[in-house]
Amino acid sequence: MADTIFEYAPAPESRSIVDIKPSYGLFVGGEFVEGRGTSFKTISPATEEVLAEVAEADAADVDAAVKAARRAYDKVWSRMPGRERAKYLYRIARIIQERGRELAVLESLDNGKPIKESRDVDVPTVAAHFFYYAGWADKLEYAGRGADPQPLGVAGQVIPWNFPLLMLAWKVAPALAAGNT
Questions:
Q1: What's the CA gap between 57 and 37, in Å, rounded?
Q2: Which residue in 55, 108, 152, 173 could disulfide with 133, CB within 3.0 to 4.6 Å?
Q3: Does residue 17 surpass a pLDDT of 90?
């Protein structure tokens, strides 16, 4: 008698755990604002369903975002001690963990990757990056950059389609830990 082994995959994550609005603006200066440029449709590559319309930043929108980031850098973030920045990075990491299922569903809907990869690899790695750099935020003077390392300023990033959340973490977490915006 041959034994049959059934391999069960995890149940698909339900889309019902996320609330996708019909449209999104740009996040500038701590709030969503209307973009001055056009918008584009974000489409699920798995189903070709339109998920939402997203504002596309024009040059003036980018300038406004850089100015807002510069204000945050000049007035608060660059002056904040590393131990205080670390608290924010730890909190971001915890929120990513707490909302991990939702983030995984959104990541899979947006770029078509299997939920298992988003849920079990990408989102936990995103949280891990924020935890890691939170741990470095108050130790930068010992990292070989001199006794008094200084933040550099505002950083920008173009994020690709295949690892949007993970690429954000790879760039944003170390920049924030070092006092940049």
A1: 6
A2: 173
A3: no
Residues 175 and 181: their CA atoms lie apart, in Å, by: 7
| pTM, two decimal places | 0.88
pLDDT at residue 1 greater than cutoff 50? no
Q: Sign of dihedral through CA atoms 19, 172, 40, 161?
A: negative
pLDDT tens by residue, 149-168: 899 999 998 888 788 999 99
Dig out the tokens for 73 from the structure: 């850098």
- How far apart CA 173 and CA 92 sit, in angstroms, is 9
Write the single-letter amino acid at 53. Answer: E
SS3 92: helix
Cα four-point dihedral sign 71, 73, 79, 81: positive
Burial class (CB in 10 A: 0-12, 13-18, 19+), 15: middle
Side chain identity at residue 14, one-letter code: S
**Which tokens belong to 67?**
């100015």
Burial of 133 (0-12, 13-18, 19+ CB in 10 A): buried
Q: Structural domains in the chain?
A: 15-177 (3.40.605.10)
pLDDT in tens, 53-104: 999 999 999 999 999 999 999 999 999 999 999 999 999 999 999 999 999 9
Helix (H, G, I), strand (E, B) or coil at 79: helix
